[in-house]
Amino acid sequence: MDQLARAAALLGAGICMGIGALGPGVGEGFVAGKACEGISRAPEHASLITRTMLVGQAVSESTGIYSLVIALLLIFST
Amino acid sequence: MEFTVEIIRVAAYMGAALSVGIASITCGTGVGYIAGIASRGMMHQPESRDSLFRTMFIGQAVTETGGIFSLVISLLLLFGGFDVVEGGWLRAAALLAAGLAMGLGSLGPVIGTSYAGGEACDSICRMPKYNLTITGNMLIGQALAQTSSIFALLVSLLLLYSTPLQASIPNITAGGILIRSFAYLGAGLAIGIGTIGPGIGIGNVAGKASRMMGRFPRQRTYIMRTMFLGAAVSQSTAIYALIISFLLIFAVK
Q1: What percentage of chain B reaches a pLDDT higher than 90?
Q2: Minimal Cα–Cα distance from A25 to chain B, Å?
Q3: Which of A4, A6, A17, A57 best tests the B interface by mutation, with the highest count of B CBs <10 A?
């Protein structure tokens, strides 16, 4: 029974990281695309736009990191 | 249940079908999308049809890469000679996982590259003079987006060629077989689903960059720098998925 639970945890780790990477990937790409648009319209604000883009991407990344943590926990602590 | 070599064949055939079947959903749509935008562009700008045709063709070729990777994995699964009875349940799980990884893994990058190709054709139609700059930018962006499908190819090949035969592991129990098989399936699903998001995201960046390159060609250094930076950050989640896949393939005992 223990081994069945461990097998399920490992499959769960894979699914968790897979689906967890969907949202951040699309979201960060969206941020960067809009930043490209903005920076070409207003190149004088390049540093401001780049900074905002990086901060927004970092926040958007957080859910990806949550799923990484959960996946690592499922692999190593079950 | 008595293990026979047919079980490995069933897994290999299912993996082959899933790999090329899932991948061709977005390959067909994506290549058609680029051709549609290029045709509309030719209607507006018949005099720049040569450069539009060239960009369309290059964009379609890069978009098709994901489908070609899936075809290669499919053919390997069918004719690679993996159906040996010593492989056992582990080999069956690894083959199914390899097909799933490559099939799902090419969905996102292909959507992304086709968006970039379409935007580049649209942009050339607006600014035919800058077609070389736009095509160059499109190619770089598409290459960035296809990186995640290369991750999926890597994991597929690892599942095919560096997973052990069941008979070569001494004293393996039924539980051990179950754990390892599920770990292989998990690895395939992690990299397969995990590359969809980054692929679409990076393609979005590349498409927006190509569009803006046509409108404001003087800002191309800024645009390209932002595109690289944004794509690199967006790629990070695909790299997390790659790490989890490696751990599931190699670190699970």
Answers
A1: 79
A2: 4
A3: A17
Domain count, chain B: 1
Q: One digit per residue, pLDDT tens: chain A, 78 residues?
A: 788 999 999 999 999 999 999 999 999 999 999 999 999 999 999 999 999 999 999 999 999 999 999 999 999 987
The DSSP output letter for B170 is: T
* A49–chain B Cβ distance below 8 A for any pair: yes
For residue B1, pLDDT over 70 is answered with no
- Decide if B110 contacts B71 (C-beta within 8 A): no
Q: Which of B197, B207, B223 sits opposite A25 (nearest CB)?
A: B197
pLDDT digits (tens, 9 = 90+) for B144-165: 999 999 999 999 999 999 888 8
Residue B252: phi and psi, rounded to 5, are: -90, 125
B253 or B72, higher pLDDT: B72
Distance of CA A68 to the CA centre of its chain: 9
Which of the 8 DSSP states describes residue B39?
A: H
Task: Determine the Cα–Cα distance for residues B191 and A45; give it in Å rounded to an integer.
Answer: 37
> Nearest 5°: CA angle at B229, between A45 and B190?
140
Structural domain including B125 reads: 5-250
Minimal Cβ distance to A35: which of B183, B190, B230: B230
Residue B81 Cα, gap to closest chain A Cα (Å): 27
Q: What is the ipTM of this complex?
A: 0.93
